[in-house]
């Protein structure tokens, strides 16, 4: 119905940070307000940025340490929509005028399938060993099942090994643990934007690790290009720019399938990105949490673990969890696969604080080994429901004349609402988001994903039909009202700027240099978008 966008082994002992605990704590405290040294005279406009998560930090709490004040500040500044939603959550009977949540990436389509499977007798096993302290990497029986599961679904060329598996309570903890054991305080990971914005907190709150942005945009530059396309050239330029800003980059974060874009990387692209990291001796963290939520077969998803050869297996670390693919975000199960045993051991040590109960480990092992149920019942029905919900929301957006990236993986559409902003600023983006929230529909705005173009929003479609219909009705009412307002105002005579006063923007996660970039509106090939 809608066209689709086209688009060596290292010594492990050198991979971990060598600072003492006291050094790390001191660096964390010293770096709260520190600017990067060595800024260049000229920048590469719009290509990169170095994040400063606490650039607008302020707190007068005398009860908390400096770290405690930063942690509380993140909660206060970056959870507004989520907190508001939970105070006024929609319920068809109890609260029909409550907020419809199309902003939080959860799969709410298959509770019936999951509740039946999780209620079966094999999920209720209790043995003494499950009530005692486990190996902090996870019980051996679970790590064995995870290795078999990943070998099968990632299509690995050789069986994956249980000793390379660590299990803990979700990918948020994994990001935090990996950042802590791979980087010194103040160092950085490269990450393409837009990206799942909570990673900013995951790597910063414990490890004091920053993100160096590889800015992507909607401009289509050639026949084989697509909006927000990552290339090795862009990685090289961003690394060069971040280094010139004084940032020490230790790794690259890739999300595949990508959140919020909903696309996937080809094997050739993955090899190119991994080759780039090998040349610069960078770790690569690959988040594959949506790998079984690819509902468009034409996308042809490929896992990093399915590649014939990893350029640098000692610096390649892959994570997966059940929160997205199995709609279990509340159970908190995640897993790391790495061939680097020093990294695995260091992360496992942190599992003292992020581990799983023995009972949950037993349930996860039973679930992952039930290949018949997964392949014959759950995955076909889940993909069918995801595709139907995606089609419904796509058609609603088309009827509204709203462009969006089609994707085909994950639970979201990346929606272009720029035409509803009068001046094209992040302040207006935030105002539109708040207006939607006041109209009882929650979306996620682009600034939270470090998108450099104001006006992009992530819209979640993996919800029940009655909630989707009501949410889209409320969205339509706001956009039709905004459309009338913008028609009544003359168009701006100056180029759009992606940001002005960062003090007024929630989610203060942007680069302090982003305000200097001018983004001109470039016509995009219509086949790259879904438009009416």
TrEMBL record:
Coiled coil: none
Keyword line: Pyridoxal phosphate
Domain Aminotransferase class I/classII large: 100-461
Gene3D superfamilies in alphabetical order: Aspartate Aminotransferase, domain 1, Type I PLP-dependent aspartate aminotransferase-like (Major domain)
Alphabetical list of CDD domains matching this protein: AAT_like
GO MF terms, alphabetically ordered: pyridoxal phosphate binding; transaminase activity
Keyword Mitochondrion in record: no
BP-aspect Gene Ontology terms: amino acid metabolic process
Signal peptide feature range: none
Keyword Calcium recorded: no
PANTHER family attached to this UniProt entry: 1-AMINOCYCLOPROPANE-1-CARBOXYLATE SYNTHASE-LIKE PROTEIN 1 (PTHR43795:SF17), BIFUNCTIONAL ASPARTATE AMINOTRANSFERASE AND GLUTAMATE/ASPARTATE-PREPHENATE AMINOTRANSFERASE-RELATED (PTHR43795)
Name assigned to this protein: 1-aminocyclopropane-1-carboxylate synthase-like protein 1 isoform X3
Protein source organism: Octodon degus (Degu)
């Amino acid at each position: 119905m809608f066209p689709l966008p086209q688009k060596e082994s290292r010594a492990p002992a050198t991979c971990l940070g060598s600072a003492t605990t006291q050094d790390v704590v001191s660096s964390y405290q010293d770096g709260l307000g520190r600017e990067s040294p060595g800024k260049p005279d000229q920048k590469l406009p719009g290509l990169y940025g170095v994040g400063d998560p606490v650039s607008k930090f302020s707190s007068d709490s005398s009860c908390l340490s400096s770290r405690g004040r930063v942690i509380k500040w993140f909660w206060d500044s970056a959870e507004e929509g989520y907190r508001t939603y939970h105070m006024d959550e929609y319920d068809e009977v109890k609260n029909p005028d409550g907020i419809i949540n199309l902003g939080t990436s959860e799969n709410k389509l298959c509770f019936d399938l999951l509740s039946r499977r999780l209620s079966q007798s094999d999920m209720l096993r209790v043995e003494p060993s499950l009530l005692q302290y486990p190996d902090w990497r996870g019980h051996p029986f679970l790590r064995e099942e995870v290795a078999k599961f990943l070998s099968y679904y990632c299509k690995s060329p050789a069986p994956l090994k249980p000793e390379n598996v660590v299990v803990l309570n979700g990918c948020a903890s994994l990001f935090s643990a990996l950042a802590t054991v791979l980087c010194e305080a103040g160092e950085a990971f490269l990450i393409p934007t837009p990206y799942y914005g909570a990673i900013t907190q995951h790597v910063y709150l414990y490890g004091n690790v920053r993100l160096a942005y590889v800015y992507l945009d909607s401009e289509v530059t050639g026949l084989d290009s697509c909006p927000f396309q990552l290339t090795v050239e862009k990685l090289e330029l961003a690394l060069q720019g971040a280094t010139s800003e004084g940032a020490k980059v230790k790794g690259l974060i890739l999300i595949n399938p990508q959140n919020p874009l909903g696309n996937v990387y080809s094997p050739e692209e993955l090899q190119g990105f991994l080759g780039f990291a090998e040349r610069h001796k960078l770790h690569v963290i690959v988040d594959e949490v949506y790998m079984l939520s690819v509902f468009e077969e034409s996308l042809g998803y490929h896992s990093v673990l399915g590649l014939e050869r990893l350029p640098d297996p000692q610096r390649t670390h892959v994570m997966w969890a059940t929160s997205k693919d199995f709609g279990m975000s509340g159970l908190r199960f995640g897993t790391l696969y790495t061939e680097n045993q020093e990294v695995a051991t260091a992360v496992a040590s942190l599992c003292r604080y992020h581990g799983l109960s023995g009972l949950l480990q037993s349930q996860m092992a039973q679930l992952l080994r039930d290949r018949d149920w997964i392949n014959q019942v759950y995955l076909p029905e889940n993909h069918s429901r995801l595709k139907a919900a995606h089609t419904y929301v796509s058609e609603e957006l088309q009827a509204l004349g709203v462009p969006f990236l089609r994707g085909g993986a994950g639970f979201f559409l990346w929606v272009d609402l720029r035409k509803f902003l009068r001046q094209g600023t992040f302040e207006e983006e935030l105002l539109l988001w708040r207006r939607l929230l006041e109209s009882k529909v929650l979306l996620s705005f682009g600034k939270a994903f470090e998108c450099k173009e104001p006006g992009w929003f992530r819209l979640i479609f993996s919800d029940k039909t009655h909630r989707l219909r009501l949410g889209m009705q409320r969205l339509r009412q706001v956009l039709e009202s905004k459309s009338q307002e913008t028609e009544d105002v003359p168009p701006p005579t100056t180029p759009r700027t992606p940001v002005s006063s960062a003090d007024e923007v929630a989610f203060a996660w942007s680069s302090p240099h982003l305000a200097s970039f001018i983004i001109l509106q470039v016509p995009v090939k219509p086949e790259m978008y879904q438009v009416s």
